[in-house]
Design a protein that fits this description.
The protein has a domain of 51 residues. α2 runs antiparallel to α3. It has seven helices and no strands. It is rod-shaped, with a radius of gyration of 41 Å. By secondary structure, the protein is mainly alpha-helical.
Length: 143
């Protein structure tokens, strides 16, 4: 929950310079700007050329860099989710495994007792034994 709140509260972005790439047309415009920028009449033409250059430029690399900056925390969050879930359920899973082992041992012991009862049914069908069992049941109910 804390990580989700952190991700949705806002993103910190590094500044990306869209003119950092060194393309031939960019170098040409820069050189022409230095040469012709001193003359007032050429400033309007240079501004128009820069405007055209900006409008026709391909910004896919810049967009990919920005997208990577935005999505990187989400990728880290997705990768850490599996570890967090495993860590969260580690103790309950261990407790369940121990309980399962204990119950399997109890079942095995009771199955052994049941086999013994099936081998000697006369010991449990004897009227005196049945009376003793019934007597103990009644004593347990009274207590």
């Amino acid at each position: 929950r804390r990580d989700a709140d952190r991700l949705t509260s806002g993103a910190q972005m590094e500044k990306v310079n869209v003119f950092l790439r060194r393309t031939p047309s960019q170098l040409l415009l820069k050189g022409a700007g230095k040469l012709l920028g001193a003359f007032a009449q050429n400033k309007a033409m240079l501004a128009q050329k820069y405007k055209q250059f900006i409008q026709t430029q391909d910004y896919t690399e810049v967009v990919e860099a920005v997208i990577e900056q935005l999505l990187l925390p989400f990728e880290w969050f997705a990768k850490s989710l599996e570890r967090d879930v495993t860590q969260f359920f580690h103790a309950p899973l261990t407790a369940l495994e121990e309980t399962l082992k204990r119950l399997e041992l109890e079942i095995a012991a009771q199955e052994g007792e049941l086999k013994h009862m099936r081998k000697n049914p006369e010991a449990y069908r004897d009227p005196l034994v049945l009376f003793g069992i019934r007597l103990r049941q009644c004593e347990q109910l009274v207590q």
